[in-house]
Design a protein that fits this description.
GO molecular function, one term: magnesium ion binding
Number of strands: 14
Number of helices: 16
Number of domains: 2
Subunit structure: Homotetramer.
CATH class of the largest domain: Alpha Beta
Binding site for Mg(2+) 1: 230, 266, 294, 337
Order of helices and strands: EEEEHEHHEHHEHEEHEEHEHHEHEHHHHH
Shape: globular
Helix content: 40-55%
Protein name: Xylose isomerase
Radius of gyration: 24 Å
Strand order of the largest sheet: 5-6-7-8-10-12-13-14
Distance between the termini: 41 Å
Catalytic activity: alpha-D-xylose = alpha-D-xylulofuranose
């Protein structure tokens, strides 16, 4: 045991009337919501990188956090793991996620880095067995080191491409060994800064080639988890190839990979792409591509990805509404890809940020379930499209109906009358639940 979270109790559900800061007011893991335990709906996960690897820096200032595990070497990596799993026990969330670089030090060679990852993977297995915490997904950091400054899979240097492949293999092996339920690819620098030195077609082919190798390796080793791509439009690259749900789906269809890969969608990234979170979720669900989510929020006064903990129940409710509509998560879950503000220095801040976020998600889930059970929103949506239930309207959508047929129909005297979209009334309806 460490003393980093000294005197912080395990968090338990006490109900909405509790004034205990160290208690859940809305997140009751065993509460039945829409036919399932709340824990099984939400499938909460803690992000190892933001919670334990991030040092509090921003583009204009360096480290603000002082953590005893900061530094190089396997001893520090094991201490970091000890503290992490103590936090997992305090929160009681079922899952965590990690990048390879979050959990092991960089070695002098690739072989040494791989050995470090293998060693910490074995250490994790013991911790997971002791605490019951599971791995939602693993991934590889192929964007921090200078070797990846021009991309990983899309790099103009074939040696970097090969290095990326070896890095992916090591991270997938670790994820598989730990029983991970998904593996995520976030192309942090799979994009470009200027078209003056970029061959878009070549880089797309390289990206697809690497993704195909990942899929092939998954099947070869018997990894039963889901391969996920995480969309992000920009930052750090000026333009990233995994821009949003629609862009990635088009890419996967182009290379015949749409049946092998799903999406891990983040709220903050959706906002950067000019979309709402629920838009990206709804589109992915309609395409059969929604796998998992990163739950956070952006500061709407800032133009970058601020990765703040969620605190907006109406936004969260609309997100879970789309997830519940598609039947809920299977291998996916709710990963808090969120970090403290750089002035929030105390261990208590890290715990309470997650407590508040879990409560917000619980409230949003319950509101979404109530909306879906009531059915009024869906009834009003169906009413708007009721005209398409007529036989003539159904014929409009067939190839047998031509433009000439549509012309003749309108010339017969049909004159459409505009109908209200009733947006404000629907917004009022949503507010009944949140």
């Amino acid at each position: 045991m460490t003393d980093f979270f000294k005197d912080i109790p395990n968090i338990a559900y006490e109900g909405p009337d509790s004034d205990n800061e160290y208690a859940f007011r809305h997140y009751d893991p065993d509460e039945q919501v829409a036919g399932r335990r709340m824990e099984d709906h939400l499938r909460f996960s803690v992000a190892y990188w933001h919670s334990f690897a991030w040092e509090g820096q921003d583009p204009f200032g360096g480290r603000t956090f002082d953590r005893p595990w900061f530094g190089d070497g396997m001893e520090k990596a094991r201490l970091k793991a000890d503290v992490a799993f103590e936090m997992f026990q305090i929160l009681g969330q079922p899952f965590f996620c990690f990048h390879d670089l979050d959990v092991r030090p960089e070695g002098e060679s690739f072989a040494e880095s791989a050995r470090n990852l293998e060693e910490i993977t074995d250490y994790f297995r013991k911790k997971m067995a002791e605490t019951g915490t599971r791995l939602l997904w693993g991934t590889a950091n192929m964007f921090t080191h200078r070797r990846f400054m021009s991309g990983a899979s899309t790099n103009p240097d074939p040696d970097v491409f090969a290095y990326a492949g070896a890095t992916l293999k090591a991270a997938i092996d670790a994820t598989h060994k730990l029983g991970g339920e998904n593996y995520v690819l976030w192309g942090g620098r799979e994009g470009y800064e200027t078209l003056l030195n970029t061959d878009l077609g070549r880089e797309a082919d390289q990206y697809a080639a690497m993704l195909s190798k990942v899929v092939d390796y998954k099947h070869k080793i018997g990894f039963e988890g889901t391969i996920l791509i995480e969309p992000k439009p920009q930052e750090p690259s000026k333009h990233q190839y995994d821009y949003d749900v629609g862009t990635i789906y088009g890419f996967l269809k182009r290379y015949g990979l749409e049946d092998e890969v799903k999406l891990n969608i983040e709220q903050g990234h959706a906002i950067l792409a000019g979309h709402s979170f629920e838009h990206e979720l709804a589109l992915a669900a309609s395409l059969g591509m929604l796998g998992s989510i990163d739950m956070n929020r952006n500061d709407y006064q800032s133009g970058w990805d601020t990765d703040q903990f969620p605190n907006n129940v109406p936004e969260v409710a609309l997100a879970y509404y789309e997830i519940l509509k598609m039947g809920g998560f299977t291998t996916g879950g709710t990963n808090f890809d969120a970090k403290l503000r750089r002035q929030s220095l105390d261990p208590e801040d890290l715990i309470l940020a997650h407590v508040g976020a879990m409560d917000v998600c619980a409230r949003g889930l319950k509101a979404a379930a109530a909306m879906l059970e009531d059915g009024e929103l869906e009834r009003r949506r169906e009413e708007r499209y009721a005209g398409w239930q007529g036989e003539k309207a159904k014929e409009f959508l067939t190839r047998e109906t031509s433009l000439e047929d549509l012309d003749a129909y309108i010339r017969s005297g049909v004159e459409p009358e505009p109908r209200s979209g009733r947006q404000e009334r629907l917004e009022n309806l949503i507010n009944r639940y949140v």
